[in-house]
Amino acid sequence: MNIKKAIIKVFNVNLFQLISSLIVGFFVPMILSIDGYANLKTYTLYISYIGLFHFGFIDGLFIKYGGKKYEDIDKKILKGEHTFLIILEIIISVILFLISLISRNMIVFLFSISILPIMINNFHKYIYQATGEFDKYTKIMYIYNGMYMMLNILLALIFRSQNYILYCLTTFIANFISIFYIESSFLLKNRQIKGIINKKTFNNIKVGFFILLGNLVIIGLFGIDKWFVKLFLETEDFAFYSFAVSMLNIINTLVNAISITFYNYLFENNNTDKINRLKKYLIILGGFASIAYFPLAFIVNFFIKKYIPSLDIIAITFATFPYMILINALYVNLYKVNKDEKHYFKIVVTILGVSIFYNLIALAIFHNTTAIAIATILTLITWVIYSTNDLKNVIGNKKMYIYMFGLNVSFLVCAHFFDWLMGGCIYLLIYSIWTYINNREIIIEIKNEVKKH
Q1: Could you tell me if 118 and 102 are in contact, meaning their C-beta atoms sit under 8 angstroms apart?
Q2: Per-residue pLDDT reduced to its tens digit, 216-245
Q3: What is the value of pTM for the model shown?
């Protein structure tokens, strides 16, 4: 697999997703009330845990087919796995649907009808990621993001709807249209093939269960701050905090382009020299990604003024990029590539415990969203330090930590003590000088690559 071409393909689709997220992320909060936006973000918080309901099956497929070519997969087995997943998710959806009727809970109802289309989408995306079929992966993403953006534009800008339920349904409809395309193609190509369901099909749950638990713990880890805000602070605080996290996720769509492609790549390049060179590139990229705070601050200050209180939180969360990209793109993928599922699960549970501890202290002493955001960045710093020492092929040193600390301090000072324009210019200057001082060989290497093209 050509890693550069793969990253470019996924980067392009994530750039489209970024545009979609920007439009949705800015216009929907402008139209919805604070309470309506809080309800919408409660639904998206629930959706983030939807992976629990395949019980590790899709993660097992991800591990099973990782590093293989799609054409080499036994299509009888794959079709059987596909059929098994659909049956499993229909049963779960019906159960949750009945629970929503009994409890008269609208968000649980919306959650129940969202399960099947999201799971089928994830089935195909995971298979394509594992096998390096990024052309097919990006098609799914283009269809979903295009429909999601169009539906939200219609609701927010054309109809100016203030009904949060309709905005929740855009996720369901966009996923449904996406799977209609990919399922039609999959079933047409495999119409003559009879799927096989046997004991090995169920074994995927056993293989993927600890990966699933680890992934869910990571989701919980990145969502625990929102739960603390939702459960212990006011609805308005939750809306502001959710808006800040939404801004973080907008930029994360581009960063994730690297995370998605690295899993397959690391199967063939799992050696100390390459991994540590990648680590340097990722940290540099993370520091640069933080710059996105400043144009976002401009937009909020001039166009979405009711969310100005969230800017302090956004600034703190954007300082996490150097740690977040290192964890998601490299460390998590390395644990999966090494196929040490139980150890991976143990690590993320430990970090979740650390996160809960930090958040409890933040809540008990300060009882505000700023303190909880600081608890999040402390959690990620702890994780980077721990996994850098835990992973055999990763080398950490004082220079790396000094560089990351310098980026954090300069960014937070520029974000909190200067306006968006002055702060952005000063941080860019400091970032450029600091990066050249600490990673001169990487900068020279990048320059040489640019000259070649």
Answers
A1: no
A2: 777 767 777 887 888 888 888 888 888 888
A3: 0.69
